Amino acid sequence: MSTPETSRFVRLRVDLVLEVGDEDAVARAALARIADDGDLSAEGQEPARGAVTGDTAEALAHLVDPFGLVGDVPGVELQQASWSSEEIDYDPDSPEWDLDGDGFGEDGFDGDGSDEASVAGAADDSPGECDK
C-alpha cells in the first residue's frame, strides 16, 4: 500500500520488563560495551562507567541496541531511536501491568479459543538516543 497519502515511516513501540538475576554481570557487560565504544571519548567514558556501576537500569540502557532489533529486517532502515530504563515495582498479576488493557492473558489468548495476541506501547523517554 504505497500511495502518496500513506506515510513510509512507522513508529514501533516496544515495552519490556526484565528480571535481573545478576546485577554484576549486567554491569560488567555494560563496562565492556563502554570500553569498546570507539565513538565515546576517554572523557566521556569515565562518567558512563560510574553510571553503569551504580545503577543496573543505567547499565541496561547502555546495552540496548535498537539497530540490532531491526538491522536484519528487509526493506527498512532505522531513522531514529529512543529508549529508557528504570527500576520498577513489578507484579505480573496486577491489573496495572495489563499494558494495553485488552484483557488477554499471559499466553495471548482471550479465553474464547482465538489466538489473537496483544502488543503494548512504550514510553518515549530517552537516556539512550540514536539518530541515523
Secondary-structure blueprint:
Blueprint: H1 23-36, H2 42-54, H3 56-63, H4 66-70, E1 80-83, E2 128-131
Antiparallel strand pairs: 1-2
Helix pairs in contact: 1-2, 1-3, 2-3
Biggest β-sheet: count, sense, barrel?
A: 2 strands, antiparallel
Percent helix, as a range, is 25-40%
- Category from helices, strands and their pairing: mainly alpha
Topology as a string of helices (H) and strands (E): HHHHEE
Q: Could you name the ranges where pLDDT drops below 50 across 5 or more consecutive residues?
A: 107-127
- Calculate the terminal CA-CA distance, rounded to whole Å: 25 Å
Describe the structure.
This protein has helices at residues 23-36, 42-54, 56-63, 66-70, and strands spanning 80-83, 128-131. It is mostly helical and 132 residues long. A two-stranded antiparallel sheet has the order 1-2. Residues 107-127 have low confidence and may be disordered.
Question: How would you describe this structure in keywords?
Answer:
132 residues; mainly alpha; two-stranded antiparallel ribbon; 4 helices; 2 strands; 30% helix; flat
Structure in a nutshell:
The chain has helices at 23-36, 42-54, 56-63, 66-70; strands at residues 80-83, 128-131. It is mainly alpha-helical. Helix 1 packs antiparallel against helix 2, helix 1 (23-36) crosses helix 3 and helix 2 (42-54) packs across helix 3 (56-63).
